[in-house]
Write a structure and sequence with these properties.
By secondary structure, this protein is mainly α. It has one domain. Helices cover 84% and strands 0% of the residues. It is built from 4 helices and no strands. Helix 1 packs across helix 2. The chain is elongated and about 45 Å long.
């Protein structure tokens, strides 16, 4: 695939992922996250590191899930590879936090891990579907 195709897939992936994650964090954040790890949370998120995460992570979703699914011609590849990538990435974060942070709970680790798996699988599948619909790749 040409670089421009990857860039288009990247934008589509971010546009599918960001609204879902904002919706999740704005509903679960004040309840689950604050209840479980409130003392660890900042009053306001640091937008620089958050932006860096999304920019890097979106590229990973394209590379590890969307592009392979388009090569296979299968939405199920996007869903499976996206879910596995999300699980591995969020497991790295959540299990590291459990291993190193006082006050990081198993409950929040499991909830966050499940969310990362779902978010990434769904985002990869949406990006795949949009790319196929518009014949981008």
């Amino acid at each position: 695939m040409p670089v421009t195709t990857y860039l288009i897939l990247y934008v589509i992936t971010l546009l599918s992922m960001l609204p879902l994650d904002v919706a999740w964090l704005s509903t679960a954040g004040p309840t689950i996250y604050k209840q479980q790890i409130g003392p660890l949370l900042l009053d306001k998120p640091a937008m620089g590191p958050a932006a860096a995460f999304y920019l890097l992570y979106g590229g990973g979703v394209v590379f590890f899930a969307v592009a392979p699914a388009l090569r296979d011609g299968s939405w199920s590849t996007a869903l499976l590879y996206g879910a596995v990538f999300g699980f591995m990435a969020y497991a790295t974060y959540d299990l590291s936090n459990l291993a190193t942070l006082r006050g990081y709970t198993t409950t929040i680790a499991l909830v966050d891990l499940a969310w990362g798996t779902v978010l990434t699988g769904v985002s990869a599948t949406v990006a795949y579907a949009v790319a196929r619909y518009f014949r981008i790749a």
